[in-house]
Amino acid sequence: MAPAIISDLETPPAVDVAPPAGPGLFSLQGKTVAITGGARGLGITLATAVVEARGAVACLDILQTPSAEEWAALTKLAVAQGTTVSYTRCDVTDEVAVQQVMDSIALSAEAAGAPFWGTIACAGIQQQLPALEYPAADFNRILSVNVTGVFNTCKAAARVLTAAKRPGSIVIISSMSGNIANRGLSCTAYNSSKAAVQQMCRSVAQEWGQYGIRVNTLSPGYIRTAMTDQLLVENPEVEKTWMAGALLGRLGVPADFKAPAVFLLSEGASFVHGSDLRVDGGHCASA
Ligand SMILES: NC(=O)c1ccc[n+]([C@@H]2O[C@H](COP(=O)([O-])OP(=O)(O)OC[C@H]3O[C@@H](n4cnc5c(N)ncnc54)[C@H](O)[C@@H]3O)[C@@H](O)[C@H]2O)c1
């Protein structure tokens, strides 16, 4: 068969407009974003970032209720910003439940005049076990939350957007552990799951770009949260190894990821698609 020449190729439809100018570049005003893992840790901090950018937020998490103090502060901030926050208990591994919750968030968002814009897939779990002893059941449990759960979240959000014929933005929280193996930690399942979602991002970016749905991963380095506190309790000496690679002389805090997440969600990032944004204080820049 003769090779296709450029003029034979179908021109894809233009799905997005140029980014807005000025403050609109990073504004999420009039947009609703669903955040999984939004009960605590990085998720609730990113919810705060969306509200600070004037977006509305719908948090989902497997926990019965979100972290009380942080939720009270987030609710107060939402009132001050003239926007809204909601919380729904939902297990991201339950495909049907995730779709139902996303559909219901989108209905309320439309009614409130801040249509559904996308999601931050932040729910994740971690486990430390030597690979030689890793039971398949445990390995599958990590993959089920960190990979299938992320896929359920992205798919449900993309189905809402395509049904409404709206563009949007999906941010998947991966990790620098999707690219490197952390010295001193035995986390094969977790690291594999974080590499998997980076490839998932590229795959769905290839499918959903035609609908104006941008998909990117945000890959944090070490952050002090409940997840890493648990690892450090199990291996107190590991903090020294982490600090040895901390080119800025510190580990991350959840607030370090607010601006990167808002950037990826915002219309200012209108040509950022299928990318990984690594935010690790330089950790992966030196060996
Ligand atoms: N803390 C770090 O150093 C670090 C580094 C890189 C990436 N990350 C990633 O950031 C994300 C958030 O991590 P964190 O440090 O805030 O941890 P965290 O444990 O504080 O928060 C994770 C949240 O996910 C929720 N969750 C777990 N399983 C769920 C399920 N089946 N359905 C719905 N929700 C579920 C938990 O209840 C929790 O609220 C994770 O994806 C994690 O892998 C964290």
TrEMBL record:
* Keywords on record: NADP, Oxidoreductase
| Highest taxon listed in the record's lineage | Eukaryota
Query: PROSITE patterns given for it?
Result: ADH_SHORT
Q: Which Pfam families match?
A: adh_short_C2 (PF13561)
Q: What residue stretches are annotated with the Ketoreductase domain?
A: 31-221
Identify the Gene3D superfamilies for this entry: NAD(P)-binding Rossmann-like Domain (3.40.50.720)
One GO term in the molecular function aspect is:
oxidoreductase activity, acting on the CH-OH group of donors, NAD or NADP as acceptor
Q: Which family does it belong to?
A: Belongs to the short-chain dehydrogenases/reductases (SDR) family.
Full protein name? Short chain dehydrogenase reductase family
Q: State the species of origin.
A: Ophiostoma piceae (strain UAMH 11346) (Sap stain fungus)
